[in-house]
Design a protein that fits this description.
By secondary structure, the chain is α+β, with helices and mostly antiparallel strands. The protein contains eight helices and 15 strands. Bound molecules: adenosine-5'-diphosphate and magnesium ion.
């Protein structure tokens, strides 16, 4: 579901009923946020671009409003209005291609997040140009993970969701006396399931943006799926993956994309100055860079069994 594989675990006297409900909820969220589903509420919004504002579900409204805010802030590589550009490249799909520079420039002309019109009272959203499209691909999984976990918090003693590498847990892990959930951080240069280190977490989310996640190979070039909103090309960086650890999955999602194009030094100083997020950065030279307050939660690979 949601374009990925989802693991869900709950420990509860009524686990199977709860899992059924959560699976149903996941389906509802999928139709709310998916930019590729013709039936989604997001698609309905795109159909009305350049025509009329439409009322959207409160969840969608909140996510668009928050996404707009973080698209306009500095520093930020996040831009939720990047839909027209993302569709041109279509990385991660069978018809992915490198668009011509003309097409890239044309798509970029309809990606200004300032133009997204929000009406807080009526909960309406209006995209004033018909070419405009919102892409919540960088944020929706975080929002959904938070909603799923908050639904099971008062019905279970512990649980986790892993939405294709976007992890959030609550309560103590039944597997370890310490209660920590131990999360492997993928080695960006090896097949999935090979880790470079692990991090012990309690009631936290771990979200990674990585250049290895989805790629398009074109000649001897390879293009990844996180775009620089200024150039229209994949962000150029020495960073192979940026993992953000935070109390909420949405916050981890926001910052794993917002900060992706910054240098290691700038990411670390930003994260060390904010008191709610931590970072693990893996660079092309295979170095691991850590923010200050995550260091005591790190487990070297040799111990990570
Ligand atoms: P993943 O989907 O692998 O978890 P991300 O959370 O980093 O990765 O989100 C990447 C997705 O977000 C892309 O597939 C695309 O739909 C969208 N996207 C790409 N670049 C940006 C950007 N600069 N700002 C906002 N969304 C983006
Ligand atoms: Mg993300």
């Amino acid at each position: 579901m949601i374009g990925t594989k989802i693991d869900l675990m709950v420990d509860s006297p009524s686990s199977s009923t709860l899992l059924k409900q959560l699976t149903h909820d996941l389906k509802v969220y999928e139709t709310r946020f998916n930019a590729n589903d013709p039936q989604s509420e997001l698609m309905a919004l795109h159909h009305c671009a350049g025509v009329t504002p439409i009322t959207v579900h409160d969840d969608l409204y909140k996510l668009i409003a928050l996404g707009k805010k973080h698209s306009l802030i500095t520093p930020s590589y996040l831009n939720i209005a990047l839909g027209p550009l993302v569709k041109q490249w279509h990385i991660g799909f069978d018809d992915a291609k490198k668009p011509s520079d003309d097409l890239i420039m044309e798509a970029l002309a309809s990606t200004d997040p300032n133009l997204i019109e929000l009406n807080d009272e009526k909960k309406t959203v209006y995209l004033p140009k018909k070419e405009m499209e919102i892409d919540l691909g960088a944020l929706a999984k975080g929002y959904i993970a938070d909603r799923i976990i908050s639904t099971c918090e008062n019905q279970a003693t512990t649980g986790f969701i892993n939405l294709g590498g976007n992890f959030l847990s609550f309560g103590p892990s039944p597997k370890r006396a310490s209660g920590y959930y131990r999360i492997g951080i993928q080695d960006p240069e090896k097949p999935r399931g090979n880790y470079m280190l692990a991090v012990d977490t309690l009631n936290q989310s771990v979200v990674t943006s990585g250049v290895y996640e989805r790629q398009l190979k074109h000649g001897n070039q390879s293009y990844h799926h996180i775009f620089d909103p200024k150039t229209g090309y994949p962000i150029e960086t020495d960073i192979l993956s940026l993992t953000i650890i935070s109390d909420t999955s949405l916050e981890a999602e926001i910052f794993s994309t917002r900060l992706f194009g910054l240098s290691v030094e700038n990411i670390l100083s930003f994260v060390n100055d904010s008191n709610n997020i931590d970072a693990i950065i893996i660079t092309k030279d295979r170095h691991i860079h850590l923010s200050e307050t995550i260091k005591h939660q790190i487990v070297p690979l040799s111990h990570a069994i």
